[in-house]
Each structure stands twice: as structure tokens, then as C-alpha cells.
Amino acid sequence: MTWREKLREEGQKEKTKLQNMSWKDRAWYIWEYYKIHMALVGVLFLFLYLAWTIAYNSTFTTRLSYVVINDSNAETAGLEALDQDFRTYMGYGKKDKAGINSSLHINTADITSELEYASMAKISALVASNDLDMIITDATTLRYYMGMDAFADLEQTLPADLWQQIKEHVLYAEDAQGRQVACGVDLSQTLFCEKTGVAISPCYAGIVTGSLRAEAAASWIRFILGLH
Question: What pLDDT shows up at residue 107?
């Protein structure tokens, strides 16, 4: 008898055995004798799913990534609509990603909660992976991060014409060397908060030091301020 015939015979025996059992006994029997096999199949499917997800996500290109810190409004679904408007404004394709990465909360005066520690860890991880271009937050948090040289000097980073248009609406803060740096664009006179539902007052946007997509961040500032 060949191995194929043996397998066929064993399969027929199992089929007959299961057919003669009640539903309850059949379920117990399958679980008792095949649970390891089912677990292995489950692991295989999980591995294939993760591999497919990684491969699929690799087909997307991040054009701009930002976080919002200390938004007191828990429902800011308008961010997605604004991000779509920006993608249209830039002429991005379906697989070009541009928008919010996370909405985080940090009390820089007294960081005690697990949520705050997790938020800081998230920001550190995004910066380390070059996956963060802008931070939108309040003045206190912006100054806190500027003290760690987290933001680029907007006067040096933005195109000259854009700087001339916004320089009267910029927040200055001290860097690690005690120098005053133009690090935050005031969004209070824009439609950002109104369109998105973000509740931060006043609200500033800063470009992260070393951003690989600083030009896209500058374009976002033009877009949100309605400048050309």
C-alpha cells in the first residue's frame, strides 16, 4: 500500500468515526486530537496576514506626518477631512499618505500618568524613525520641546516669501543654548481648529528638527494659512 493510499484510508476512518459521533462528542474529539494542528494553522494564517500587511503598507509613501498634542476635544474627526483636502491641494495620489499620526496628551509641568509617558515614548519613536515632520500643540508644550532643540528655526527653514508672510505670527522660544528661535506658526487666525474640531488655544505648528519632509511641512503651512 502506497503512502497516498494509507492517508486516504486513515482519512476515511476518521470521517466514519466522526459521522458516528454526536455533535458534542465530535467537537470534543476534534479539539482534543487536533488542537495543536489548528493552532499551527492559526499561526500560519497570522504570519501570512502580517506578511501581506507589511508588503501592502510598503506600497504607500508618507508625504507628511504630524502629531497633535493636548487637544481637549476627544472627537476631532475633522482632521481626516482636512488631511484629504491637503492631499488634493498637493495633487497626491491614492497611496500618498499625509496627515495625523497620533493625538497625544502631555502635561509638561508634571508628567506622571502612563498615558503621558506613552505619549512621550511615541514622539521619541517617531522622531527616531524619521517619521515625524510637525507637532501641533499649545505654547507651553512647544516651549518645552524647543528647550530640547526639537524644532527647526522657521526663518531658516521656510522659503523666504513664506517667512515674510508669517513672521508677524510666529512664536519664539529658547533652545537648549538659550537662544530665541522662531519655532511655532500661530494657527489661531486660520480655519484649522474650526475645520478639525481641535481644541487648543492658542494653537501652534512647529516643524521638527531634521524633518526629511520640511518642504511638505512648508506647503502645509501655506495651505492652512490660505497663502500662495
Answer: 83
